[in-house]
Structures are given as structure tokens and as C-alpha cells.
Write a structure and sequence with these properties.
Globin-like, 5 strands, 278 residues, 5-stranded mixed β-sheet, Transcription Regulator spoIIAA, alpha/beta, single chain, 2 domains
Length: 278
């Protein structure tokens, strides 16, 4: 049996009892183990379900079973918004996809009831319904995972920015209180933050200050050691802001600042920086 006939049968069933399908679908979701009553009310669930059911029915009228085709665009957009929202609210991929998959049982029951005496039509309509909902359910999972990845990347960037603050100590004096590992990614953020702060404030002195482990390929971590303990080591990887001065990584970073502003002076120590500015 053709997909056109199957979608037409499904469309007829949905239009004939839209309210009944909606209520049964909502009740099934509420009774399921994946429903999060702590994050969603029955009213919200009903509104989302009703919206999707109407878009689903409208797309079926086109008799297309390709969810990437234009008639399915509104339904896809609705699922994208739902998946993105639930990803941000802390739902799991399974909980999100179940929104679509849970519609199967409700529709199967009505298909069986309407086509019990027509085995061929029953099999075709069941297959088409299952295929459509499987594709839509997988689509929600793809969108959910993509949104979660973007959220994680944004959080990582925000944490990186918070770990590289630029503080105004005095008029014309900026400090970079850095603690932890200084790798290439963090150095880039440091420089972007510092350059922007210099442009905004017109500062003349930048003071990198802190206790850092500089990530350098091929060198041991040297945990517990400081620059003053290994002044001649090629693999020195700790910088004490009040000690022997900036490491090569600091000098390179400060050189970048210098190329952007001829008046910026790099100082490794707080006292040296303030004295230079005064």
C-alpha cells in the first residue's frame, strides 16, 4: 500500500478524534517514568502536545513521509525549540525523545480499532506511523545533543573567562591575578581580555600576578616547585608573580600587548608596577 493512502488514513483518524488522541497522549506521558513533574506542569505539557499534534496532522495532509521536506518544516521547528528548551532545563535525551515516541501507542490503538478488518491497510498504516515517529524522535535527539554540546562549550568558555580576570588596581594600572595552568587556549583568552581592558581604560601598566603552572610540551609538571627554585632550567614551569620576573610565555603575551599599544608597560611584580606608574 502506498504512503499516500497510509498518510491519508492516519490524517482521517487524527481529524476525527483530535481531542481524544490529545488527552490519551497527555495522560500516557504523565503516567510515564520519564515525565518530570519538577520541571513541567500538566498545562505546559498539554500545550506542547496540542501544538505538535496539529503540526503533525497538517504535515500529513501533504502525504509526504520525508520529514526533511518543506511540509514538515513547522513540525521540525517546533521540535527544535522543544529539544533546545529541554536541554537547557536539564532533561535527558531519553526524556526528550519520549515526547514523540509516546504518541505511537495512542495512534496504534486507534489504527487497530479502525482497520481491524483490513489487515493490509492496518499493516501499511502502522508501518508509516512508526516510521514517521521514529524519524521525528531521532530528530529531537539530534537537536538535543547539538544544543547540549553548544551549552557545554559556552559554559567552558564562560568558566575560562572567569578564570582570567583583569582587575583595575589604580588609574592606569591593571592586574592579572592568575592561578592554575596557563596553556595556549587560556593565554588567548588572557590576551583578549587584557587588550580589551586596555582599550577601555587606557591603562599604561599591566601586572601579571599569580602562581601558575605553564603548560609546555615535553616538560615535566614540576608540581610544588617555583621559578626561584629552578632559575636555570629550560623546563621551568611555575611562575611566582613576586619572584624572578615573567616566564617566556608571559614575555610573549606582554609583547603582544606592546604591539597593540606602544605605551603599555609589563611588570611582573605589584610593587614594580605601581612604582612604574607613579
Amino acid at each position: 500500500m502506498s504512503n499516500e493512502i497510509n498518510t491519508e488514513t492516519l490524517t482521517t483518524l487524527l481529524k476525527a478524534d483530535e481531542a481524544g488522541v490529545l488527552n490519551a497522549w497527555v495522560d500516557q506521558q504523565l503516567a510515564g517514568s520519564t515525565f518530570r513533574s519538577d520541571r513541567m506542569s500538566r498545562k505546559e505539557l498539554t500545550e506542547e502536545s496540542q501544538h505538535f499534534l496539529r503540526l503533525f496532522t497538517q504535515a500529513l495532509v501533504s502525504q509526504s513521509v520525508d520529514i526533511q521536506s518543506p511540509p514538515w518544516a513547522p513540525a521540525r521547528q517546533m521540535l527544535e525549540e522543544l529539544s533546545s528548551t529541554r536541554a537547557q532545563q536539564g532533561f535527558t535525551p531519553s526524556e526528550t525523545a519520549t515526547f514523540v515516541f509516546s504518541l505511537k501507542q495512542v495512534l496504534f490503538e486507534r489504527i487497530v480499532s479502525a482497520l481491524a478488518s483490513k489487515p493490509a491497510e492496518l499493516a501499511g498504516a502502522t508501518w508509516t506511523t512508526s516510521t514517521l515517529l521514529d524519524r521525528l524522535g531521532l530528530y529531537t535527539t539530534e537537536v538535543f545533543l547539538r544544543t547540549r554540546e553548544q551549552l557545554i562549550l559556552r559554559q567552558q568558555q564562560e568558566m575560562l573567562e572567569l578564570s582570567t580576570p583583569v582587575v583595575t588596581l589604580w588609574e592606569g594600572i591593571l592586574a592579572l591575578p592568575l592561578i592554575g595552568t596557563l596553556d595556549s587556549a587560556r593565554t588567548q583568552v588572557v590576551m583578549e581580555s587584557l587588550l580589551q581592558k586596555i582599550v577601555d581604560s587606557g591603562a599604561l601598566v599591566a601586572i601579571p600576578r599569580g602562581f601558575l603552572e605553564v603548560a609546555r610540551e615535553g616538560c615535566p609538571s614540576g608540581r610544588g616547585s617555583t621559578l626561584s627554585q629552578h632559575p636555570n632550567s629550560d623546563c621551568t614551569n611555575r611562575q611566582d608573580g613576586g619572584g624572578k620576573g615573567p616566564t617566556p610565555e608571559y614575555r610573549e603575551a606582554l609583547g603582544v600587548v606592546g604591539r597593540h599599544s606602544a605605551f603599555v608597560i609589563g611588570r611582573a611584580g605589584l610593587a614594580a608596577g605601581v612604582d612604574s606608574r607613579m
